[in-house]
């Protein structure tokens, strides 16, 4: 009797759980790619957001020569870089994107009397650029591909 009671409860639980849950695709490679892309973009956007927030927070405690608009421009340059590098088709194209991005950041930093990108920001920005390029296979993760053009 106890076994029959336990079996009927388990059957009810099975039915209840299977009815309430939405159907999921099983091992769809498209889903895995989509999830991976979304996660990757999300992580890089998060790194850029952390950098931006750090710069803005510093502005509250100090009187730097840069403005909120300059910080937003820096974030825009980095977000554009992430998008462009992920859509690039060759190492040569990717390295040209890196070069253009670093040169834009050089000009922005110069406009800000070289105060926008200091040691901490340099490390964060270089990491974003290097990691995204290495995901495409254009460099090794430990290889600083910004150094040739970087003035910050």
From TrEMBL:
It comes from the Bacteria. PROSITE patterns: PROKAR_LIPOPROTEIN. This is Lipoprotein.
